[in-house]
Amino acid sequence: MRNYDFTPLLRNSVGFDRMARLLDTVGGDPRPSYPPYNIEKTGDGAYRITMAVAGFAESDLDVQLEDNQLTISGRVNNSAKDGPEIHFLHRGIAERAFTQRFNLADYIEVGGASLVNGLLHVHLQREVPESMKPRSIAIKNGDVHAVADKAA
């Protein structure tokens, strides 16, 4: 029997809670990715992507939203560093360029982004238009034949 790994579908999707719950039991071993990140549900229709970007300044990061796809990229600008040349004895803080893409569900809006203590936080909120929200339909007591005649 073949095992299908649905982790890539879940890992880069925000707001698809029903699909995530449905496929949650199928999962496999998570693939490592750089930089590491969390996707958190912070409230009713509120989400946050937290990405560990140690060594990156605000000017090194770019967050863009286009056609329900959130793209976060980073590239350290080494040419802007002034001072003596540094020779590393051990280099454990990776400053390599990266691009992460997240597919957002319909009506998910980006509320903003902040960089605090080496963590990039991107705040997301589900904003469903009033016309798309569920509504209650009043049931009237009336003549069944009159309704059937109108439908025909």
Question: How would you characterize this protein structure?
Answer:
The model is unreliable at 25-32 (pLDDT under 50). With 152 residues, the chain is mainly beta. The protein has a domain at 34-128: Immunoglobulin-like, CATH 2.60.40. The chain contains 3 helices and 8 strands, in the order αβαβββββββα.
At a glance:
With 152 residues, the chain is mainly beta. Helices cover 13% and strands 34% of the residues. A 4-stranded mixed sheet has the order 1-6-5-4. The protein has a 4-stranded antiparallel sheet with strand order 2-3-8-7, with no helix packed on it.
Globally, the shape reads elongated
For the termini, the CA-CA separation is 52 Å
Note the total helix count. Answer: 3
Q: What CATH architecture of one domain do you see?
A: Sandwich
Explain the layout of strands and helices:
Blueprint: H1 7-11, E1 13-14, H2 17-23, E2 37-43, E3 46-52, E4 61-66, E5 69-74, E6 98-104, E7 108-116, E8 119-126, H3 144-151
Parallel strand pairs: 1-6
Antiparallel strand pairs: 2-3, 3-8, 4-5, 5-6, 7-8
Using brief descriptors, characterize the structure shown.
8 strands, mainly beta, Immunoglobulin-like, 152 residues, 4-stranded antiparallel β-sheet, elongated, 3 helices, 4-stranded mixed β-sheet
